[in-house]
Write a structure and sequence with these properties.
This protein is of the alpha+beta class. The chain folds into three domains: 89 residues, Beta Barrel (conserved putative lor/sdh protein from methanococcus maripaludis s2 fold), CATH 2.40.420; 94 residues, Elongation Factor Tu (Ef-tu), domain 3; 123 residues. 38% of the residues lie in helices and 36% in strands. It contains five helices and 21 strands. Strands 1-21-17-16-20-2 form a six-stranded mixed β-sheet. A hairpin with a 3-residue loop joins strand 18 and strand 19. The longest helix has 62 residues. The protein is elongated, with a radius of gyration of 54 Å.
Length: 423
């Protein structure tokens, strides 16, 4: 048999590793401490259901401070008075000025020639002359008829006086016995007939005066009415000479020389550069608070001017409203129409309010809630907002000074009540 080496093997005892016990003990304590310290974070993470990095959010602190509500934007210089002139009647245009020419008030800018209007003016004047002749003839006839009626009245008065005298003589003769009673009676009858004739003559004169008065009044009114027609046509004829209503410059020509235009066609515009304003477009949401007289500030050409709101358009176009500001004090120099300037209108100023930076939470949630940072979480909280400016919003309820809120990026939370914020 072949002998093995079992007799030569020697059983060795492994050395004791005493250093491992302290190491395992320290590692166990560290693990337990880490679990204890990370337990709240794990609980928040698993309790919230989702986690969002803080780099995806914009935060702001709630503080006390001044709040100025204003509207800022860009405006353009416009003339406060910039009338556009129109053709008073159809005709052919002859221009007396060119675009950019300086003009004085009352200066002739253009002339229109209208043969139809000129012919009508002549016809109306002829009709007025005819009516005037009729009125004068009626006045002459009225004087003649009144003279005849007056003559008849005077004749009747003389006959009445004669009858009275004859009756008196007959009565005296009858009393003296020189005449018969019949003569007295005849004289009495003649007097009565004379009285009737006198009364009729008086009435006829009165009726003749009334009839001639009405006739003359009708003739006179017809003549005056025709005169008004003549004056109206003459006014239209005068309006064919287009004059400048203000001192300024010719802005834009809408017609060319010897061009035929229709009635009420645009001819040209005149710009009064002595009164300038700045027009800006304001969002409809802010336009509701704009009032005439609100103070403003206008900047441009390295200068700043005080202004005030002069008008607010009632028409909304593309969700915007046009507002104009006038310059307060001395009129600025070296400004051109349509020049761009920076405009700021002060709506309200409060010295000390609880406010936070304006963010997407104002529009997205309607300002009814916001996410507040608490112990590494964003907690949804109901709030109530007050006055708002372009950069700040007033907080009436729901927040305290020093709290940090999510002003933008809350759309990543998808409406959750609690969201863990990771670094």
């Amino acid at each position: 048999m072949i002998r093995d080496t079992s007799a030569q093997d020697k059983l060795l005892t492994p050395p004791e590793r005493r250093w491992k016990r302290p190491v395992f003990l320290v590692a166990g304590v560290a693990l337990v401490a880490a679990m204890v310290m990370g337990l709240p974070a794990l609980a928040r993470m698993f309790g919230s259901g989702q986690s969002v990095g803080i780099s995806r959010l914009s935060l702001a602190e709630v503080t006390f401070g001044p709040l100025t509500r204003d509207i800022a934007g860009e405006g353009k210089v416009v003339a406060a008075v910039s009338p556009t002139l129109y053709a008073g009647n159809a005709g052919t245009v002859t221009l007396a000025v060119q675009a950019g020419d300086a003009v004085q008030k009352g200066q002739v800018l253009a002339n229109l020639f209208s043969p139809e209007l000129l012919a009508r003016l002549g016809q109306e004047r002829s009709n007025a002359d005819a009516l005037q002749s009729e009125m004068l003839r009626a006045e002459a006839d009225a004087r003649q008829q009144r003279a005849q009626a007056q003559s008849a009245l005077e004749t009747a008065a003389i006959a009445h006086k004669t009858a009275q005298n004859d009756l008196a003589r007959q009565q005296q003769a009858f009393e003296a016995g020189a005449t018969a009673r019949m003569q007295v009676d005849q004289a009495q009858d003649v007097l009565e007939r004379a009285q009737v004739a006198l009364k009729q003559a008086q009435q006829l004169l009165g009726l003749k005066d009334e009839s001639t008065k009405f006739e003359l009044q009708a003739k006179r009114q017809a003549f005056e009415r025709q005169q008004m027609v003549v004056r109206d046509v003459q006014r239209q004829q005068d309006e064919l000479t287009v004059r400048s209503p203000v001192d300024g410059q010719v802005g834009q020509l809408f017609v060319s020389e010897r061009m035929s235009v229709a009635k009420d066609a645009k001819l040209l515009s005149v710009v009064d550069l002595s009164a300038l304003e700045v027009q800006m477009q304001v969002a409809e949401s802010f336009a509701r608070e704009l009032q005439v007289g609100m103070p403003g500030e206008i900047r441009g050409n390295n200068q700043t001017w005080k202004g005030a709101v002069s008008s607010v358009s009632p028409e909304v176009v593309n969700n915007e409203v046009a507002a104009r500001l006038r310059f307060e004090g001395q009129r600025p120099e070296q400004l051109r129409q349509n020049q761009r300037l920076s405009v700021r209108v002060l709506l309200d100023h409060r010295d000390r309010v609880l406010a936070v930076a304006r963010g997407s939470f104002v529009e997205e949630g309607g300002g009814r809630f916001v996410y507040v940072l608490q112990d590494g979480q964003a907690v949804k909280r109901a709030i109530r907002l007050g006055a708002q400016s372009l950069s700040l919003v007033e907080v009436i309820e729901g927040l305290q000074p020093g709290e940090r809120v999510v002003v933008s990026g809350a759309d990543n939370f998808h409406g959750a009540e609690r969201v863990t914020i990771s670094q």
